[in-house]
Amino acid sequence: MVLLQQIARYIDPTAIGIVFGGTLLTTAFRATRADIGRAFSSLSLLGRADPNADAAAARVSVSRIRELAEVRSLACVDRVETAQRFLLRAARELSDARGAADFVRWASADIEARRQRHQGVIGVWRAIAETAPAMGMIGTIIGLVQMFAHMEDPAAIGPAMAVAMLTTLYGVILSSAVAGPIAGRLETLSDAELAWQTAACRQLELLAREELDSLPPAIVRPNLRTVL
Q1: How far apart are the C-alpha atoms of 65 and 152, rounded to whole Å?
Q2: DSSP state at residue 21
Q3: pTM of the full structure
Q4: Is 50 helix (H, G, I), strand (E, B) or coil?
Q5: Closest to 59 measured CA to CA, from 211, 202, 216
Q6: Strand, helix or coil at 128?
Q7: CA gyration radius for the chain?
Q8: Mean pLDDT in order along the chain per 10 residues (228 residues)
């Protein structure tokens, strides 16, 4: 019971509304709705994401694609079995490419689009980390104004002082203990994911150059999507 009373001293609805509500509202003006949705969805990745395992699995999948290309041809590599959706799309694009340049254009565009999405998500958490202390300071000023406005009423000084102090506390916690570490973790995961995807695409580009770009000019492999 004593512990609950101690914890209750650090809970103030007004302070929570100023800091958390103000931070979310400000962030909503700075980011797109899609980025905000992806930012909160990305929380599920923090505990289960394993960049090293993904990179190792990607190397295995690229080896399988190379084996299919050597045994059959690049036109058959879309049959590769892998749990990584990015490599499934890459294999499909590779099997339909008329030359290495086609695959490189797709890989560059896809990875750049992914990078921009990642930066949008990270930017949301960075915005929260930057805004929360400011909201805490605003709450502190509001609490001090209320306190000085009711100096004649001792009963009103305590709640106003609580708002002034707790908003600063909430702002620091939200920024330094929540949003900042999340943004840092997501940035690390993004760098690792883009790194293995870029490396995988370079290996697939070499396959395309070996088979497609070595064909005589008179032999042009039809684009299956166009044919179908």
Answers
A1: 79
A2: I
A3: 0.84
A4: coil
A5: 202
A6: helix
A7: 27
A8: 74 91 94 94 90 92 90 84 89 89 94 96 96 95 89 83 92 96 96 95 91 57 40
**Segments making up each domain of the chain, as ranges:** 36-215
Other C-beta atoms within 10 Å of 74: how many?
23
The structure tokens 């330094």 sit at 176
Give the residue carrying structure tokens 């998500």: 121
Q: Which residues of 34-49 are buried (b: 16+ CB within 10 A; e: fewer)?
A: ebbebbeebeeeeeeb
Give me the amino acid identity at 27.
Answer: T
- Listed in sequence order, the DSSP H helices in the chain are 2-8, 13-16, 22-30, 33-41, 45-48, 51-71, 85-96, 100-149, 154-172, 180-211, 224-227
Token output for 227? 């044919």
Look up residue 180 and give its two tokens: 């900042």
Q: What is the dihedral of CA 205, 211, 217, 222, to 10 degrees?
A: -80
Tokens 């001792």, residue?
A: 154
Residue tagged 């000023």 (tokens): 141
Length of the chain: 228
Amino acid present at 197: Q
